[in-house]
């Protein structure tokens, strides 16, 4: 049974926004990947700032986008050591999408993702909401399995 299950978990996607909730999801992904020799793909979705861009030049918008990508990459690089210590294959992706949940769902569909592991809330979620809007959107629209981890910020 475990061998069959491991084939189903070859590619694990972890949406990561730097929150404690996403860190907990990453730790769960490490645990599962170690058991099933899975590959982890950590995904950060940067939401487009185009709607906030009135009066900003295209050049400045590109600079802002690069700054955001560099900040996200610095956060993601810290995860490499954790995966490396457990000898787990890790790749990192940064995409731009006005909707985090749509970006995650599209990425999963286009990249043969078998399992998405994500936190119950993230930086965009309100503490009063039991399940964040991004997690709800992913659950509602993805075709692969989703594991939601609970944790505190």
Automatic annotation (TrEMBL):
A Pfam family annotated for this chain is: Usp
Name residues in a coiled coil: none
- Domain named UspA is located at 9-150
Q: Which domain of life is it from?
A: Archaea
InterPro entries of this UniProt entry?
Answer: Rossmann-like_a/b/a_fold, Universal_stress_UspA, UspA
The family this protein is said to belong to: Belongs to the universal stress protein A family.
Q: What is this protein called?
A: UspA domain protein
């Amino acid at each position: 049974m475990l061998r069959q299950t491991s084939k189903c978990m070859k590619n694990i996607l972890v949406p990561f926004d730097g929150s404690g909730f996403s860190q907990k999801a990453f730790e769960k992904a490490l645990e599962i990947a170690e058991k099933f020799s899975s590959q982890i793909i950590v995904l950060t979705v940067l939401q487009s700032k185009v709607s906030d861009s009135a009066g900003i030049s295209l050049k400045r918008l590109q600079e802002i986008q690069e700054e955001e990508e560099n900040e996200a990459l610095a956060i993601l690089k810290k995860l490499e050591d954790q995966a490396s210590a457990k000898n787990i294959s890790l790749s990192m992706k940064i995409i731009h999408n006005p909707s985090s949940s749509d970006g995650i769902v599209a990425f999963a569909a286009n990249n043969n993702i078998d399992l998405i592991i994500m936190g119950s809330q993230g930086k965009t979620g309100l503490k009063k909401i039991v399940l964040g809007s991004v997690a709800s959107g992913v659950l509602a629209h993805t075709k692969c399995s989703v594991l939601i981890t609970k944790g505190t910020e």
